[in-house]
Amino acid sequence: MTSVTATAYAAPAPKAPLERTTIERRDLREHDVLIDIAYAGICHSDIHQAREEWGRGAFPMVPGHEIAGVVSEVGPGVTKYAVGDRVGVGCFVDSCRECEQCQAGLEQYCQIGGMTGTYNDTDRQGEKTYGGYSTHVVVDENYVLRIPEGLSLDVAAPLLCAGITLYSPLAHWNAGPGKKVAILGVGGLGHMGIKIAHAMGAEVTALSQSLRKKEDALRLGADHYYATSDPETFSALAGSFDLIVNTVSAVLDLDAYLSLLKVDGSMVVVGAPENASSLNLFSVIGARRSLSGSSIGGIRETQEMLDFCAEHGFGAEIEVINADRINEAYERVIASDVRYRFVIDIASLRD
Ligand code: NAP
Ligand code: ZN
Ligand code: ZN
Fold it and tell me: How far is the CA of 39 from the centre of ligand 2 (A)?
């Protein structure tokens, strides 16, 4: 087949509003699948990158790494997927496939050249990558996920980043029965953290700036909820958690939150703010605590997460928007005013 011209939404320059445009998707290679995208989630990382909060970006930039759609064509060597399959694509579309991390299914930590980002990156053939705010995408079958029956594509899309970014550390740090887990920040990532930690059997506390999201968080599976704007929260919860997963997109007083961990407790940071953080090392020394980070999850674990969510009967809580509302949605995400993930209906790009 010849390449496909896709309709997309792109940021033409750093911090510029996104606008409608077209991009070319490559001819299918041996192991490629062409995906007709149905929905694309808006992750806060899209905003960080479109606004160059993480360093220089490549423009025009088509963000989007929470992609759900249907396979519409397959390359000659494809064995894993067929036309009509419901599939997803997350934050990366390739990796070296040979290093220790890739061999272990931890492609997100690829040691040779790093993972190839779904957008704002250059792939291993030297072509720029463009993300999911578009009608089509072409991806190697080995970097494509299967969306289980029972999960509709709109609520499945945010699982490809928000879902796996919480599932991976919760699994790695053994969230489960008998564990007290706090999810810090009730946004796109955080709300998935509440659902997943609850489904894993942990006792879950939601920590949010205000009381505004209390009812929602309890409905999603939190056992407890506290507002971090209330100083009493920090005395009430001192030394109480085995694990805190920090999803906040801004710099925080890490010492205050580390004080909420038990002896041997861990804080895992997944939120990736623009500016550097600092801490007083006595916050970890004084109770043998750990401060760690975690990046999304590998392909194998992402499939495991999708199957886990389907088994437990949940996807993300979403607000579906047409593509012409992306810029407005960005402002609402920044204002922590989303319940709890914006998902773009890509049909609105096909008009
Ligand atoms: P989001 O929907 O905007 O959620 C972030 C939440 O952080 C907000 O809902 C808010 O929760 C809290 N928050 C925001 N500003 C705050 C402030 N100044 N002080 C205290 N709390 C604040 O964003 P997201 O899509 O979940 O992403 C969260 C972060 O994770 C971003 O930095 C993103 O780039 C990063 N990320 C990392 C990975 C990874 O692999 N490590 C993957 C995806 C995203 P409340 O309203 O409850 O206070
Ligand atoms: Zn993301
Ligand atoms: Zn590798």
Answer: 14
Hey, which of 247, 251, 339 would you mutate to test ligand 1's pocket, going by the most ligand atoms within 8 Å of its Cβ? 247
Instruction: Give the model's pLDDT for residue 2.
Output: 62
Nearest to 88 by CA among 337, 321, 296: 296
Q: Which residue has the tokens 């990158």?
A: 49
**Measured from the CB, is residue 272 less than 6 Å from ligand 1?**
yes
126 CB-near residues (< 8 Å, 6+ apart)? none
Radius of gyration of the chain from its Cα atoms, rounded to whole angstroms? 20
Whether the link from the prior residue into 169 is cis, omega within 30° of 0, is no
Do residues 245 and 268 touch, judged by C-beta distance below 8 A?
yes
The residue with tokens 């990736």 is: 272
Instruction: Let me know: does 241 contact 217? Beta carbons within 8 Å.
Output: no
Name the token pair of 194. 């509440």
Query: Which residue is it, tokens 């790009």?
Result: 349
Q: What is the pLDDT of residues 44-100, one digit of tens each?
A: 999 999 999 999 999 999 999 999 999 999 999 999 999 999 999 999 999 999 999
Residue 214 has pLDDT above 70, yes or no: yes
